[in-house]
Amino acid sequence: MRFRHPDGSTVHLAYCTNVHPAETLDGVLRQLREHCEPVRRRLGRDRLGIGLWLARDAARALVADPAALRTLRSELDRRGLEVVTLNGFPYAGFGAERVKYRVYRPDWTEPERLGHTTDLARLLAGLLPDDEPEGTISTLPLAWRTPYNAASERTARRALTLLAQRLDALQDLTGTSIRIGLEPEPGCTVATTADAVTALSGRGRPPSHRIGVCVDTCHLATEFEEPGPALDALTGAGIPVVKAQLSAALHAENPGREDVRAALAAFAEPRFLHQTRTRTRAGEVTGTDDLDEALGLPADPPARSGGAGGPAPALPAPALPTTGPWRVHLHVPLHAAPLPPLTSTLPVLRDTLTRLVGGPAPLTRHLEVETYTWQALPPELRPRSRARLAEGIAAELCLVRDLLTDLGLKELP
């Protein structure tokens, strides 16, 4: 979906295809047919942007066979789809039954990450619409925080510098500009926008405007960052917002209540990591690596049920302080608020979007809805069919479309 900003520039809105597991090129082509095109049709649009996720094997197949890349481009065109951005964070296995910490490997200290991201940049240059000279890729925010030391930082910085040089050469060759955004995420070396400022400014900064930040509004909210100061800090440091991922975290206002923690427990599950944070009365943000840890539950707890008519078992004492609200890194659907007593951080998304594109010029032109956890929701909230999933994704895009038009952007055909 394309929008005209009041300054005359084009803002792109897509949804990320990492919600549809596919590790191979055949799987990607099947995604376009079974998921992406049906979403476009539900929206009644002639053209729909998708934030394509290409796993390692799919990317390698496309790099090795130029004819395969032409086939993918042809399929995108035939199905009314376009790609200006890729999600380069997950490397492989994102559709596995258990992902957890595996999603952070390989990191930017390992050559596989540089090689894969270079492949993605080359592929994106061949997938961009003819009238769009710039593409973006979101990526791992360097590494998970452990193990990571000064030597790791030097290695990662060298890799980013080499990547920037390769992107310069790619533009010289193809005429297209590809930029990379580190995506701050709780628990990582770069967990917040403040961490991104530290990593990407000052001595040793990669010597290129091509390396910036991807702002994920779920991650921003989970770390209790305020959108205004966070974006001002990036702008003040000269760090570009390469793209933004529009997502909402789970919010529990009163975690001291057992019914609130019981509602949260329904979202603890074995597939993805759900970093949980709270802000204490002193203003300190503290947290755990996963939701079950915060609740004091065993890892990968079974569904909490009291059986036929029986009461649910009592919850253990929580591991996190309960004097302030909790937020959970779990991308909940944008258009459907969680049932009380839980809510989402949709207001943070609204505020961030206002500051990103509501001013005299957009801070970024690439927006991507990224709710990849549909099948990790409690069973009663999961879509039961491809049609229901398409309906939900379309509803999310409609919500963001309305927010953009309220900010003065005009939807384009």
Kindly describe this structure:
- The structure is a single chain.
- The chain is of the alpha/beta class and 413 residues long.
- Helix content is 37%, strand content 18%.
- It contains twelve helices and 15 strands.
Write the layout of secondary structure elements.
Blueprint: E1 2-4, E2 10-16, H1 25-43, E3 48-52, H2 56-64, H3 66-78, E4 81-87, H4 111-127, E5 134-139, H5 150-174, E6 177-182, H6 193-200, E7 211-216, H7 217-222, H8 227-236, E8 241-246, E9 248-252, H9 258-265, E10 276-279, E11 285-288, H10 291-295, E12 326-332, E13 343-344, H11 346-357, E14 366-369, H12 386-406, E15 410-411
Parallel strand pairs: 2-3, 2-14, 3-4, 4-5, 5-6, 6-7, 7-8, 8-14
Antiparallel strand pairs: 1-2, 1-15, 9-12, 9-13, 10-11, 10-12
Q: What characterizes the major β-sheet?
A: 8 strands, parallel, barrel
Q: How many distinct beta strands?
A: 15
Order of helices and strands: EEHEHHEHEHEHEHHEEHEEHEEHEHE
List segments where confidence is low: pLDDT < 50 over at least 5 consecutive residues: 303-310
Instruction: Please state the structural category.
Output: alpha/beta
Terminus-to-terminus distance: 8 Å
Mean pLDDT: 94
Rg, rounded, reads 21 Å
Spatial strand arrangement across the major sheet: 2-3-4-5-6-7-8-14
> In percent, how much strand structure appears in the residues?
15-25%
Please estimate the helix content: 25-40%
Shape field: globular
The number of helical segments is 12
